[in-house]
What we know:
- By secondary structure, this protein is α/β, with parallel strands linked by helices.
- The chain has 2 domains: 4-124 and 297-327, Quinone Oxidoreductase, Chain A, domain 1 (Alpha-Beta Complex), CATH 3.90.180; 127-270, Alpha-Beta Complex (Quinone Oxidoreductase, Chain A, domain 1).
- The protein contains 11 helices and 15 strands.
- It has helices at residues 45-51, 118-122, 125-138, 155-167, 178-186, 200-207, 222-229, 253-259, 270-274, 276-291, 308-316, and strands at 4-10, 19-25, 33-43, 68-76, 88-92, 101-105, 109-111, 146-149, 170-174, 191-193, 213-218, 232-240, 262-265, 299-304, 323-327.
- Strands 3, 4, 5, 6, 7, 14 and 15 form a 7-stranded mixed beta sheet that branches. The chain has a 6-stranded parallel beta sheet with strand order 10-9-8-11-12-13, sandwiched between helices. Strands 1-2 form a two-stranded antiparallel sheet.
- Helix 11 links the parallel strand 14 (299-304) and strand 15.
- The chain is globular and about 65 Å long.
Amino acid sequence: MSHSYRAAVCTALTGPASIAIQEREIRPLDSGEVRIRVHAAGLNFPDLLMTQGKYQFRPDPPFVPGLEGAGEVMEVAADVQGIQPGDRVMAGGKGGALAEQWIVKETAVSPLPPSLSFAEGACWQTAASTAWHALVARGHLQAGETILVLGASGGVGMAAVKMAKHIGATVIGTGSNEEKMVAIHQAGADHVLDPSDEQLAAKVKELTQGKGADVVFDPVGGQLALTATRAIAWDGRYLIVGFASGTIPSFPANHVMIKTYSLIGVRAGEAPRRDPELARRQGKALRELAARGAMRPNISHRFSLADAAKAIAVLDKREAIGRVIVEMSVSN
């Protein structure tokens, strides 16, 4: 085994262009750790934000981005039970997946279901856990209800469309061009609207016989958020998932009161860390969903490790339809 491996390293907080491919030293495992030979890493919007120093978790350069990946277990620490070399796994962490090797805690590792490829497994967990946590744990979406999914062509948005259909809801998604609209329909949405349409709220009302959407799933923020509040039903639930637009909206409290809707914050990663019972329930639900191949990712872009900077730039240009992955040429 060689003493180093290649990784995509963020060298400065100046965005995707700061990514350089470097050799890194292999370190011994600490207690409770697992070394994975990464086959594929899935990119998420926070990866872009972290290269710009704009995410709430703000590592100092040099660091390796990549919050999730899939591959084969190479080695486990002496005290690790239930995971062994050769296992095909998915894993998540606060970074490090954009590399040929990745060390993670055993608690962050789960089996790769036979229903998912390495590429699909590499970009399944983050979006799927966000969609499940938002729609089930926080939004209590029910079969027969209507949900408006903003940014439905993004990785998290598309997972929400698929999860909502799995639950049995009617789904209205937003997509900003023809290609994205087609992909949102293919993901299972019942209706797709243009987010820049000045009649967006009126069209949602029309599609819901004047009632409005029971739930709004919003990973976008910005001006679109305020438009979406005009499309929400009486007693509706507004799920605040993120701010991909780069602008954090301010919601008028009088409007919230008059329409009696709830503004609900969603933190799919943090909530289970604070609530062990939720963590167990979320873990069990996600394992079952993964085994069934639910929320199978739509991968629109695939890059090699050498082109990791270009992969992250796709997120910056809002070109992804579903997910962007980086596939390693597995070498040692």
